[in-house]
Amino acid sequence: MEDQLTTRQVAAALSVSESSVKRWCDSGDIPTERTVGGHRRIPLAGLLEFLERTNRRVVSPLIPPVEAKPTRQVPPKSRQDVSTERFLEALVGGDEDAARRILTIAYAQQESFAWLADEYIAKSMVQVGDLWDCGSLNIYQERHGCEICSRLIYEMGRLLPDPPLNAPLALGGTPTGDLYSLPSQIVQMVFKESGWRALNLGTNLPLPSIVAAAEQHKPKMVWLSCSYLRDPEQFVEQYSGFIAELPDETMVVIGGRALNDSLRPRLKYTGHCDNMQQLAAFAAALHGKRPSIESSEN
After folding, report:
1. Which of 79, 92, 164, 270 has its CA 20 to 30 A from that of 211?
2. With a threshold of 0.90, does the pTM exceed it?
3. CB 6 within 8 A of CB 41
4. pLDDT digits (tens, 9 = 90+) for 50-99
5. Cα separations (Å) of 141 from 9, 91, 102, 190?
């Protein structure tokens, strides 16, 4: 199966002996399957369940098996096209187990949370929102789909090693009036995947409150996820003060569908990202750097 791991891979990821992993498999602590030859194979979803139940964390990057990469060898109507459709169906139908399995298989194929967020979670949630807007979904289905995604993001995040204590810190959230929690939750995990410590402050935050958090925690990066702006003109005015009050040399990255082409040139920032893969590349590139904030018009 595409989402199965060996005991050696799990042992390396958890920094324990392979014999310990085999013992957990044989005792039933880790859900395990057997190959025809009798070898233990651990489903990625089973590992997630074990991590959650035992409050363990991945210590080293999880390396899925090489044979679990068929995506680049399939024709245009790919397995990804089919699995993203099934992921959307699982969210709409409230089938959390099916959604979890689809994500774990996709992660095993690509080894990138940022890619997973763009290709599965973000695309599906946009479609869920569109279906709700046109009356094809009840509001409870949209809300339940969001809750499922939130839990799955947390679970998938457990597959990412915790950055060292001396790793750069990023913190952020959404501005006043923006109640969309998933984008900022995903941003936190993308920074973690890129080797940063990350603190998600939450939603609906006045910009001075984010400044206060920055003054206390001294982050290298502050992010703003802007899916909705109640008053764009007021936001632009408040944002100028926000930038001026941040601690010296703090970088700022912004993103979100509310920051359209007419609004964004009026803001100052270190970087703007249209998707999570761009953010991952940006975070990786700046891991050891601290450029100043420049106007987007430059």
Report:
1. 164
2. no
3. yes
4. 888 888 888 777 655 444 444 444 444 455 667 889 999 999 999 999 99
5. 37, 8, 19, 26
